[in-house]
Predict the structure.
Amino acid sequence: MNNTTQRTPLRGIAIGLGLSLALGGLAGCSQDSPGTDASPSASPVASQEASTRASATASAATPDPSAASTDPSAASTDPSAGESARPSSKPSPVATTPVPAPSAASTAPAATAKAPVALDRPVELAPKVDVRITGVKAITAEAKLPGDVSGPAVQFDVVVDNQSDAPVSTANAVVNVLGSDKSPAVMVFSPPSDPLEASVAAGAKATGTYVFRLPAAKRNPVTIEVSVDPALPVANFTGAVK
């Protein structure tokens, strides 16, 4: 009897505690469950984050106009470059140089040299045309013109005898003197030097006086070369000058 009496109050207490716990759990569940009161506090933050993410996505998706634009100078092509690369339909002009008409001297064969003769002998250059050396002597040249030098020299005359029917040009006449060692002598233009004129008329003679500086040691023998005209042979005279 005593045990039964004691268990009855304890059982009642346990039942009461169970009911209290059950009711507390229902109240907690009602507070934790999503309701219309919890959504307003969470929606402003969520909408702000969503807006930020949307703006970032749109910015990333939109291309940068400055990056997409290209340099107009780099993209454009030079019209002149395209035209120069394109083959021209017009032929290029060919430069021409006027060719002068051939002269008698240019068409003539190269002058040949005649065999050397003595200083007092004539040389025939063409039919009825000959040349000779006269008046050979040793002198002391006196420089009276710029470029001339005074000193021991030789003087002689060149005589062109033209007995043909046409004039003979002496405009390009050339006279040279070589010493005994074949070294060239230097011409003196101061008087009495008086070279040939431009031409020798038909049936006439022409004389030119020439002076060349040459020391006495080189005068035995001397060689005198006379080219009256490039179209005629070169006359050679050799001998001692005392």
